[in-house]
Amino acid sequence: MTKRIIYWFRNDLRLYDNEGFWQATQQADEVIPVFVFDPRAFENGYLGFRRIGARRARFMVESVQQLRENIRAKGGELLVRIGEPEKIVADLAQAYDATAVYTSKEIAQEETDVESSLSKRLKMINVDIKLVWMATLYHPRDLPFSFAKLPQVFTDFRKIVEASAQVRPCLPTPDAIRLPANYEAGPLPTLTDLCYEENELPDPEGTPAGVLRFEGGEQAGQARLQQYFWERDQLRHYKETRNDLLGADYSSKLSAWLSLGCISPRYIYEEVKRYEKERVANDSTYWLVFELLWRDYFHFVMLRYGTRLFKPSGIRHNMDLRWENDRVLFDQWASGQTGVPFVDANMRELNATGYLSNRGRQNVASFLAKDLRLNWTWGAAYFESQLIDYDVCSNWGNWNYLAGVGNDPRANRYFNMYIQATRYDEQGTYVKYWLPQLAQVPAERVHRVWQLSTSEQQAYGLRLGTDYPLPIINTNSWLEEPADR
Question: Site positions for Electron transfer via tryptophanyl radical, renumbered to this chain (predicted)?
């Protein structure tokens, strides 16, 4: 009897170092690869904007298209469907007389609910399901502690893991993929098929102002690493440039391909180690792995605390903090109309490109939670919609951290927007790039533009309140008490 396995691709859209898919190809006579576009993920959320914005949706479609091409090159085919995965995968298992369904193990509640529903449906037709963990650099089974004893502080986690755990080696791409003779591949959907309106569709060439054209897919992710590490030799300077704000190469930008599993963290790790042998080992090469450890940590935090990450009280279960649900203020923040240039420039970059620097993310999140006192879960949901590189664990873990309800040992950490702006955008280059109406304002005044007199505004071709908004909060405290990190 032919042993046939359905492999359901989720956030692991690659063939190289895909442990679940590798196991399926080694253990079955025939493998049916499947990807399902779930319409629920593309709907509007409770705040009225899409859960997956058009740029991330395009990146996803491109990634699936490249995955299909890679599977075809190995003699197989990727079956593509639109619908609820728990129903479609179970129906395919029955239709193709599969003996098992293999897929990646996810962590967050919605994804695990789908897993549970699929498992119940498969049980009714006597089909096994195997969930394979492959989202992190370190495998959970290799950690020197149980999740009940996960360190509360990242630094403690990092030190223990670096001293006691090993990264497993990457697995190869399967040599061949054997598929049943009769199958219906299904078309790849367009964004219109996924119910995006014409006015939502991003420019196919990318936003001209964007730092990088994020093209989805495994080859695209590998090409970005090749370019950043080996062709431009930027890895050796990563620690010094990672807090920059403009340009394609101040950071690796690999997070976009990591988010959908187009490349694996172990692949990046092995390339870093090869770079250290062939080029240089320094603080910068270590720091990239350090960032992968942060990503791991947030995955394990989600595994331990579950839905607490999505609640305003956070993983600290802090019920004393009170958050405002002011939609007017929130919309001003989201649209980059706060009257605080450093905040507005970052939000306008996010809205125009689907990307934001790590420094920018920290600042706009702190501003929303600590200065505006707005419900931080709204900000996290907006990031979920806008970011091409959205990762549920990293996004919600970081927002917990910055709102003071997460793993930060300094729960009262506060970012002074003026000090941050003058430190990381001293000449105002970034602010002026995204806020061209401030182009003539001198560097020493641009980050406190609200102080300009009427005559100065005239001299700089600017009318506050008309060309650029007045601040929506009292900014005097930033100038009087420059307390931040």
Answer: 323, 376, 399
